Each structure stands twice: as C-alpha cells, then as structure tokens.
C-alpha cells in the first residue's frame, strides 16, 4: 500500500487524480469511505477524474459513461467494459492505495 494523500485532502464526492506508483488513479470520497478506480474511461481512454460524481458513480465527461464506485462496472453506455477498482485503506487520517490488488 502506498500513501496517496490525507483523508482531509479529499472533498466529498469530488474526483481527485493521483499517480500511485506510476498508475493513474481517481479517488472519490463518499463520507468516511474512499474509492480508488483506474483514471481511464474504458470506452474513450480519457481521464475519469475530470468527470463528475453522481448517485450512480463517476461519469466520464466525454461521452457520459458512468462507472460504479464499488465495482468499476459501467452502468450506462457507451462503455461496456469495467475499469479497475483498487484496494484502499485509511490509517491515521491518511489514504493508502494498492494498485497491485484489484477488487473487481
């Protein structure tokens, strides 16, 4: 696990782009939980961290595909393939991500 940021650095339901050991990751805080997904839309290969978070998940700004924060699965077209979801641990107010472990 690699320390990415402090939990206080994350605004609730606002995407946060990070480089985790050479992997582009988007973090999304939802209350006291943090989700980490690959920061690359599986449909158009653009950064998900530039999109918005809705009740459905994180939405790609280019074509509107939405990805579930828990599973990485698309809930709307045009994307049909999921994005990777990474293991997250919050310790002593810091957010750690392991990009070698996908949870989907």
Automatic annotation (TrEMBL):
Pfam families: Rieske. Residues 2-97 form the Rieske domain. It comes from the Bacteria. Keywords: 2Fe-2S, Iron, Iron-sulfur, Metal-binding. PANTHER family: 3-PHENYLPROPIONATE_CINNAMIC ACID DIOXYGENASE FERREDOXIN SUBUNIT (PTHR21496:SF23), FERREDOXIN-RELATED (PTHR21496). This is Non-heme iron oxygenase ferredoxin subunit. It comes from Lentzea indica.
